[in-house]
UniProtKB/TrEMBL annotation:
Known cofactor(s): Zn(2+)
Signal peptide positions (record): 1-26
PANTHER family in the record: CYTOSOLIC CARBOXYPEPTIDASE (PTHR12756), CYTOSOLIC CARBOXYPEPTIDASE 1 (PTHR12756:SF11)
Name of the molecule in the record: Zinc carboxypeptidase
InterPro entries: Cytosolic_carboxypeptidase (IPR050821), Peptidase_M14 (IPR000834), SGNH_hydro (IPR013830), SGNH_hydro_sf (IPR036514)
Family: Belongs to the peptidase M14 family.
BP-aspect Gene Ontology terms: proteolysis
Pfam families: Lipase_GDSL_2, Peptidase_M14
């Protein structure tokens, strides 16, 4: 980060990790290792030039911890760099070159955001993804460290500061991490004196000429630099005298004090929990005998769960249900976590709580849960079949290829993946991304348009009404990327029709690793036969408002597909008692025929008696006269390819849909 009166964007990034066991040991007992990552407001390079002996931020933290007799000694390593933003740390190679070789840490502090907002392209779209990528790398390289993102310090206007901190809070929430709010403490201290925590750094050439001789002892690199208010009496009225908001030593004492307090609370809480922990299950050895070190769920889209050892040495993984509002219905089926164990360790995991309830009746998913995917790095995935056991039980056997292994029900598509993809296509002249509302937790919802709004035909797709089902996201991405390829075929398609897509309906559920319902207990693929409740289902209310505005403009979609995953993979053609039902069924049968002809789809459609009240497919037909269907994608096996499903297969399917849609409108004349 640049220093000066005209460069006010700096970043202190701290991600904090609270361990159960210290990473290193000193002769007099366990020693904690603490890492600080960030930019100029972490390293404090100007303070180091003026007062090289410190104390600097790392010294303040270490000294405050040492003053507490019940806390272990700490080593604090400051790896802040002037001008650094997360993307630069990762893309420049510095992370791999300078951070990874430092060895294991117990605590990792990171605070980013100020440089990012000033210099990162498409900041709001890219910054959360950058942050998530950094967290993922830290988890892989420092598996013993827990991670806590921190807010930025007061630096810009309160409104701009809050815009950055809001994104940081979102990242912390999505990654299931606690947040250390240093902004509030720093702002409270500034009320005692608005400029007492920042140094003064001012160009000598802008100092009145008569004063330049006597300020010579304070000049560094052509600027007058003082750490405190000693020159304010002379220069406070100069424009920009207080403009540089980087912390001075007093500011670093505030940051160090708040950080040390957080650490002290965390360390003591760990000690107290260890002292009162009940005996481990599964015999005296408990989990240690299984070879498992940890099941990590502290990241975006991870599934809520708890685990224990079984007497036979298996690890019982208890998935947590999410519940439907005012209903006995419940769902547990989202699987996404990271195994931490020594390389070559053989582990057996048994999944529990598969006894879901749907429509008031038991609806176990044990028979449907036949395969998961695993990945050593969270990027390259391969399928692993599961073993069906008596009762509502399924087992997974794995051998660790390295120190960690990700496990997922299907190849994940996270909120950060969506944000990165939208940023990559947003500038294409054929694309328009329109905000349409917010989720229950305030996440933005958008409809993506590909093509000209005045095209003769319009198609709508929605994915991820149920958070555990990522297949629809990959299909939509494959469809859009095929239409944006720019070849003659894509051009012909977009002359005929325009595609609209709401790619992730249940963003809150995806971020939090839920299975079926939104955070207010509503199924977003139900109740479409009536107006959406704006309080309980704001996601559906937003889509409904968008659709009705389209209809008022004479742009009603001619075809709508609601994309899901299940163990069957059928095209759900609902048959409610509506005028023109035979015509609707004939059109859906045309769609089914074209899917069979031009894609790997072979599963077929539902029976003639099928009627699924309240789904988007049926609700849009009933209320708006739109030909719509729910399209399930088989999560266990793609019969037409004789292979396990993957992101590549679903994107291939999406890439095959443009031809299907084009020929559909050859036959169907809305």
């Amino acid at each position: 980060m640049r220093h000066g009166t005209r460069w006010r964007y700096g970043l202190l990034v701290a991600i904090l990790a609270v361990p159960a066991v210290p990473a290193a040991a000193a002769a007099d007992g366990p020693r904690l290792r603490v890492l600080l990552l960030g930019d100029s407001t972490t390293i404090g390079s100007v303070c180091r030039q003026v007062e090289p002996k410190g104390p600097h931020l790392e010294d303040v933290i270490r000294s405050l911890l040492a003053a507490e007799p019940d806390l272990p000694p700490a080593e604090v390593v400051n790896q802040g760099r002037d001008g650094e933003l997360i993307h630069g740390l990762l893309s420049s190679g510095r992370y791999d070159r300078e951070i990874v070789p430092l060895g294991l840490f117990d605590y990792i502090f990171i605070r980013y955001g100020l440089n990012d907002v000033a210099r990162r392209e498409a900041f709001e779209a890219n910054f959360p993804g950058d942050y998530a990528e950094l967290i993922g790398r830290l988890r892989r390289n420092f598996p013993g460290a827990a991670i806590v993102p921190m807010t930025i310090i007061p630096y810009m206007t309160p409104e701009r500061d809050e815009a950055v901190n809001w994104l940081i809070r979102r990242v912390a929430e999505a990654e299931h991490l606690p947040l250390l709010d240093v902004y509030s403490r720093y702002a409270a201290e500034l009320k005692r004196g608005p400029d007492m925590l920042n140094y003064r750094r001012y160009p000598l050439e802008e100092i009145p000429e008569r004063h330049r001789a006597w300020v010579a002892p304070f000049v560094r690199d052509g600027k007058v630099v003082v750490m405190d208010n000693r020159l304010d009496a002379h220069f406070r009225d100069l424009p920009g005298w207080f403009a540089d908001r980087h912390p001075n030593p007093a500011g670093y004492h505030v940051l160090g004090d708040e950080t040390a307090k957080f650490l002290a609370r965390s360390i003591r809480a760990k000690k107290a929990a260890a002292a009162t922990a009940p005996p481990t299950s599964g015999g005296p050895a408990g989990l240690a005998a299984t070879g498992l070190e940890f099941l990590d769920t502290g990241f975006e889209n991870a599934s809520p769960l708890w685990y224990e050892a079984a007497p036979d040495g298996a690890i019982l993984v208890h998935l947590l249900y999410d519940h439907e509002r005012s209903s006995p219905n419940r769902a547990a089926g989202h699987i996404h976590f990271r195994i931490v164990a020594k390389p070559s360790t053989a582990l057996t995991l048994e999944f529990r709580n598969l006894d879901n309830v749907w429509n008031g009746r038991p609806a176990s998913i044990a028979d449907e849960l036949k395969v998961v995917v695993v990945s050593p790095d969270g990027k390259a995935w391969k399928p692993v079949p599961l073993e069906r056991l008596p009762g509502d039980r399924v087992r997974l056997a794995v051998t660790m290829p390295g120190p960690s292994l990700y496990v997922a029900r299907a190849e994940p598509y996270r909120l950060s993946d969506l944000e990165g993809w939208l940023a990559s296509i947003a500038k294409n002249p054929l694309v328009e991304v329109t905000p349409v509302g917010r989720t229950a937790e305030g996440r933005g919802l958008e409809v993506v348009r590909v093509g000209r709004p005045d095209a003769p035909h319009r198609v709508f797709l929605r994915a991820r009404a149920h958070p555990w089902e990522p297949g629809g996201n990959w299909v939509i991405q494959g469809l859009v990327e095929r239409l944006l390829r720019g070849d003659d075929e894509a051009t012909r398609y977009l002359e005929r029709y325009c595609v609209y897509a709401l790619p992730m309906a249940n963003k809150d559920g995806v971020a939090r690793g839920r299975t079926r319902f939104n955070l207010r207990g509503k199924d977003l693929n139900r109740d479409w036969d009536r107006p959406a409740d704006p309080d309980l289902a704001p996601e559906n209310h937003a889509l409904e408002a968008w659709l009705e505005a389209m209809i008022r403009r004479g742009q009603k979609p001619h075809l709508a597909l609601e994309l899901h995953n299940d163990g069957g993979g059928l095209l759900h053609i609902s048959r409610p008692p509506v005028p023109g039902l035979e015509r609707h069924v004939a059109r859906m049968k045309t769609l089914e025929s074209l899917l069979r002809k031009h894609t790997w789809f072979t599963e077929g459609s539902t029976s003639e008696s099928f009627h699924n009240a309240g789904t988007l497919g049926e609700g849009w037909l009933l209320r708006y006269g739109i030909d719509a269907a729910v399209h399930e994608l088989n999560v266990n096996r793609i019969a037409g390819l004789d292979d396990y499903p993957s992101a590549a297969h679903w994107m291939l399917y999406g890439g095959q849909l443009p031809r299907v849609i084009s020929e559909y409108f050859d036959v169907v004349k809305p």
